Amino acid sequence: MKIHEYQAKELFAQYDIPINEGKVCYTVDEVIETYKSYNMLTVVKAQVHVGGRGKAGGVKLANTLEKATTAANNILGMDIKGHKVEKVLVAKAADIEKEYYVGYINDRNTKSAILMVSKEGGVDIEQVAAETPEKIFRYAIDPAMGMPDYLAREIAFKLFDDIKHVRQAAVIFQKLYKLYVEKDATLAEINPMILTPDEKVLAIDAKMTFDDNALYRHPEIEELREADENEKIELFAKSKGFSFVKLDGDIGCMVNGAGLAMATMDMIKLYGGEPANFLDIGGSSNPQKVVDAMNLLLEDKNVKVVMINIFGGITRCDDVARGLITAMEQIKTDIPVVVRLTGTNDKEGQAILRGTDFHAVETMSEAAQKAIELTQS
Amino acid sequence: MKIHEYQAKELFAQYDIPINEGKVCYTVDEVIETYKSYNMLTVVKAQVHVGGRGKAGGVKLANTLEKATTAANNILGMDIKGHKVEKVLVAKAADIEKEYYVGYINDRNTKSAILMVSKEGGVDIEQVAAETPEKIFRYAIDPAMGMPDYLAREIAFKLFDDIKHVRQAAVIFQKLYKLYVEKDATLAEINPMILTPDEKVLAIDAKMTFDDNALYRHPEIEELREADENEKIELFAKSKGFSFVKLDGDIGCMVNGAGLAMATMDMIKLYGGEPANFLDIGGSSNPQKVVDAMNLLLEDKNVKVVMINIFGGITRCDDVARGLITAMEQIKTDIPVVVRLTGTNDKEGQAILRGTDFHAVETMSEAAQKAIELTQS
Amino acid sequence: MSILINKETKLIVQGITGRDGSFHATRMKAEGTNVVGGVSPGKGGQNIEGIPVFNTVKDAVEATGADTSIIFVPAGFAKDAMMEAADAGLKLVITITEGVPTADVIAALPSLQKSGTKMIGPNCPGLISPGQSMIGIMPPNIFSEGNVGLISRSGTLTYEVVNHLTKNGMGQTTCVGIGGDPVAGLYFIDLLEMYENDPDTEAIVVIGEIGGDAEERTAAYIKEHITKPVVAFIAGQTAPPGKQMGHAGAIISSGSGTAEEKIAAFQAAGVDVAKEPGEIPALLKKRMN
Amino acid sequence: MSILINKETKLIVQGITGRDGSFHATRMKAEGTNVVGGVSPGKGGQNIEGIPVFNTVKDAVEATGADTSIIFVPAGFAKDAMMEAADAGLKLVITITEGVPTADVIAALPSLQKSGTKMIGPNCPGLISPGQSMIGIMPPNIFSEGNVGLISRSGTLTYEVVNHLTKNGMGQTTCVGIGGDPVAGLYFIDLLEMYENDPDTEAIVVIGEIGGDAEERTAAYIKEHITKPVVAFIAGQTAPPGKQMGHAGAIISSGSGTAEEKIAAFQAAGVDVAKEPGEIPALLKKRMN
C-alpha cells in the first residue's frame, strides 16, 4: 500500500525523525494561507502515488505569495502519469549543504531488510544504481539484531566525516528502521536526506509503502489509505478475491493464477493484440467468481472481447465448463467470450462448451489468436 | 535487587498476568479493614526479603475477622531469619485444584534466560530439583527469538492436557518473559501458579529480583526498593564503591577484590576465627577508600580486630603502605589493625609499615592467625 | 532419483484440522505420499482419515520420525509454524499459506537457518517428485516420471508448462514451486545446484517472472556452474512498471526487474528462453539430443 | 606455547580514548603486547602514544589486520562494543568492563557465536601468556613463563595464587580470568580443553568460587576428558546463603552453589583441592613429579 509524502512525514514525526515543517493543502486558498503563515522560501509538492513528480512539473519553489499561488494553481488538478493531483504538500524549504540517499527495502537475495545509503542523494537512485553502483552502500539487517548503534554509526561514516553529523544520521537510520519494522513497511526512503549549513541532518522528502499482507495488524496504516481512481478499482477487485490491474488494450483477460495471467497477457501481445487488464481470479473458479470477474471486466468500455484462460487442476475442467455456462446465463452481454480450458479432464470440458456461445479453444495461443480476430470483426 | 511479593504482583498486574486480588497492609487496622472489604477466605502473608516465610509462621489463612486480626497481630513485627516484618500482603485466597511451579532465571550454562516449569508447585523447588530433577522441565530461551507461541504452548503441554488450560498458561509464560526481559529481572518466579476448580490459571505467589547493573535504565524498578536494615548498610557501602555483607563474627575484613575477600574470610574461619563481614573495596586502595572502609567496619560494635588484605597489583605495595599510614592518621581507634600486603614491591611495603601501629605480616595465613590472636587478647 | 523428496520422505501436516489442511493431507496420502502425522494444538490424539494428530511438531516428530512438514495454517500463524518446524529439527518445510507478511518470513528464516531446515514457500504450490512423493496442492495427474527438473515462481503457469511436457512425453524428476512472495526459502540457485547434482535430472526448466533480480543472478550462476541444459520462460513481458501483478514479488520497480532484462540475462548465459509455454518441450528436445 | 594469545596476536583497544582504555593500552604496549590500534568513534586519525585510532572496529581491522580486541567502554555501551567486535570478524574479544547488565551479555552472545568470535569476560582482568602477550589489566611482573595453565573467576585472588606459583618457581603458559559475572563468554570447560591440547601446559589450576554449578560441571568434565593434573581452589566457604559476595555470580541460592558441594565434586573427580591459596604450589608439585 502506498501513502503520500505528507503522510510518511507524519509517521517520521511520530518517530522523531527530523523533517522540514509542512502542511497538506487541498485548495489554492489553503496554500495561500499556509504560505502566509510560513512567510519564507516554500516548496509546493504534488501528492500523488507515482514517481517523477519533479520532472512532470509537480514540485515548485515559491519565495513570494504570488509564486506560491501560481504553483498551487498549476499543480492542483494537474495530471501526472494518469494520476490527478488532488492535494499538495506546502513545506518550508530547507537550506541544503549536501544531499544523501537513505532507503530501507526488503531484499530477496539476502532475505532480509537492507539499508541502502549514498552520497548521491536528491537524484534518481535507480540511475545511480545502474551507472555507478559503487556509490551505493548496502547493508543487510539481521532481524534478530536490528540496527545496533555501532552499525548505524559505521554506515553513517560512509556518508559523513564529522562525528556530529554521523551521530545525527545514525539516529535517523535507527529510528527509520524502527518505523520500517514496527509498521511492516516494504519501502522507507529518504531522498534526499540533507545536511544544512547549520549542521542539521534532516529528511526533506519521504516515501513509504507497506506490506498489504500485514495491514491486518496495522489499522492505523490502513487508515492512511487514499486511493485514487485506478487504485479504487483494484481495491474493489481485491475485495472480491481478485488481483486486478487495468491496462489500455481491448481484450479483457480472466485467468486463474498470477503467473498464468501474466503469460496470457504476454501471449495476446505476442500475437499482436492488446490486453485490457491483468486479472487473476485465484485458485478456484466457481460460477460466482466468474460472474463477478465478468462484471468487473465489462465496466471497462474499451473491452471488445473477453478471454478466459483456466487451468483445471484440482477442480476438473468438465466441472469448470459447467460452471462457466451457469455463470454466463446470469450475464447479459454481446461481448464475445473466448474460453480456453486445460488440465484435468480438458477434453471433456471443451466438449461441454462446444455448441454454446463461448468460443472454446484448446491452447493459449489459439485463444489469443481467436480473441484478437474477434476484436477486429 | 529484591522486591516484595506484593510489588511483584503489581508488576504482574501491569503485564496482565492473572493474580489473586490483594492489598499491602502496614498495620493491624489496615488488615482488619481489608479483610472486611473482602469478607471471604483470606491469606495474610509476611512481606520480607527472605525465603521460608511459611515455615516461620509468616503466612496464615483467615476465614473470620477474628482470625485475620490474630494473624495480623502475630505476623506484623515478627522476625524471620533476622528480617523484621513491617508489612503483610492480605489477599483473597483462591480455590486450588492443582499447583505448578514457573520460574525464569539467567543460566550460566546455556548463557541465556531459562524457563523452568514443574507440576510440583507450591513446594520448595530446590528440593524437587535435588530429589526428582526429572520433574522439572527446563527451556533455554534464545534471546533473538524470545518466547514464541509454539514454544510457550509446547511448554504448557508439559503441565496441562486440556488446551483451555494450555492456552492460559502459555500466555502467562509469554507475559512473564516480557516482564522479565523488559525490566532486566534476574528471577521471575510463580510458585505456585494454580489451576482453580473453575478452570482459571493464575499466579498466587510472585517473586522477582532484578539486575543491579541494569537498574540505571529502570528508575521505575529502583523506586520499588524497600531496603531493610542490613540492606541499608550494604547500599551505603555500595555508594562508597564497596561490596559489603555483614556477618556475625568479630574480625572486620577489608580486602581488594571479591575472590580474595572471600578467601580471606575462609582463611579466618580455617584458623578458628569468625569474620565480621565480607568487604571488597574494589580495584584500587587509595587513602580515602581505606578511611571510609574503616568507618564502615567500626560501626559494627562486635568488631575487635580489623584485618586488611591488599594485593598490590598495578598500584605498588610501597604506595599502598604509605596510603594506609595517611589513612590511619585520620581515624581515631584503639582497634588493632592487621595488615598484609602482597604483590608488586611487597617487601618495600611491608618495610614501611614496620614500626607503625599496624600489625604488618607477610602472608594471608599469618594475617588470619595474628588477627585471631588479637581478638583473644 | 529426485531432489528434496522421495519415497522415503515422512511428512507431517501443520494445521491438519483446518479445511485446507485436512483436504490436502487426505489428497496427498491418496497420492501415495507418506503422510505420517498432523499437528493441531489441543487435537492431539485425534486422527484425520487415519492420520494421527499431535499437539506439537516436536511430539509428532518424536512419535513418527517425520523429516518434512507442510504448513497450511492461516497467514497470521505461519511465522510461528515455521519456527516450530525449525525448532523440531525438520529437514524440509513447505509453507503453502499465502498472505504471510514479509517481515514474518524474514523473522522466521534465522530459526530455520540455525537448525539447518530448508524451506519452500510461502505462498507456493509445493513440490512433487512424480511417482514418489507429492507435497503440495498441485493436480498430480498432469505430472509424469522422467528426467526434467522444473523450478517455478508460479502455480498454474507451472501446471501449464508441465502439461505441455507430459503431453510431449517429457516426464519430470521433481517440480518445485518456490512461490511468488518477495522473500522466500529455497530459490532458483539452491535448486539448480540440487538438479545439477541429481544424476536422473537431464535438463532443467526455469519459470521466472518480473520483479527482483533473481533471474539475472540465476543466469549468472547457470553460466558458471550448470552443465545440464536449461530452458527458461519469463512471465510478465507486458506488465506496466510499479504495478503488482498478483504475486507480491511480481512488480517492476523503476528501471529494474523487467522481463526484457531477465530474458537478455538468460540468453547471455546460453539459456534458451521460450516465447510461450508451448514452446518449451521443443527447446528442451533440441538441447537434450 | 600458550592458549588463545601469543606473540602473533594483534590487538585493538575498544574505547582507547577513555581513561582506562588509554592507560591500559599504553601499559600493554609497554609490556610487549602487539597493540596495533584503537577504536573511538569520531577520533579516527588521532593516535594514543603512537597507537592509531579508528572510527570503527571494521576500519581498525581492515587497516591493521587485528584478530583480537579488548573492550574498555562504559557498561552501558559494552553490548554494542561486543557486537561490533563480532561483526568485524575478530577471533577473540576480552571484555574488561564491569557492571554490564546480564541481559546485554545474553543479547550479544548470539552475534559472537554467529561470527565464531570467542569472548572472555565481561568483568574480568583479562589474560596473559607470560613472555608473549598480555591482554588485560593484571600486574605483569608477578607472572613468569612456565608450564602451568590457570583459570579463575577472580582477579586479585588469581594474583595471590600466581604470586605463590611464581615464587615457587612454577611459571605459567597462560592465565585466564574469566570474570565473576553470572553469564560470561569462555568458561572453565572451554579453557580446560584448550589447556589439555596445549603441549606446553603440564598442569592446570582452577580457581572457582561459590554460586552456580560451573565447578560441578567442570569436575565432571575433568574426570572424563582431562589427563593433565588439575588443582583447584574454591573461595567462599564462609559465605552465607542468599548474599551476593561482590561478584554478581557469587551467590549461594537456596540449596546449591556452596563451596562444600564444589569441593566434593572436584575431589570426586580426582582433583586436589587446596585449603588455602598458599597450598597450591605444593599440591601441584605432588601431582607433577
Question: Hey, roughly how much beta strand do the residues of chain A contain?
Answer: 15-25%
Task: Please give the alpha-carbon distance between the first and last residues of chain C.
Answer: 21 Å
Question: What's the helical proportion of residues of chain C?
Answer: 25-40%
SS-derived structural category of chain A? alpha+beta
What average pLDDT do the residues of chain C reach?
Answer: 94
Q: Which shape of chain C, going by the Cα principal axes?
A: globular
Strand order of the largest sheet of chain C: 3-4-2-1-5-6-7
The biggest sheet of chain A amounts to: 6 strands, antiparallel
Protein chains sharing the most extensive interface = A-C, 58 and 66 residues
What's the assembly state of these chains? heterotetramer
Q: Can you count the helices of chain A?
A: 13
How many helices of chain C does DSSP assign? 9
Elements of chain C, N to C (H/E): EHEEEHEHEHEEEEHEHEHEHEH
The proportion of strand residues of chain C reads 15-25%
Count of beta strands of chain A: 18
- Main sheet record of chain C: 7 strands, mixed
Count of distinct strands of chain C? 14
What class do helices, strands and sheet pairing of chain C give? alpha/beta
- Overall, the morphology of chain A is elongated
Distance between the termini of chain A: 40 Å
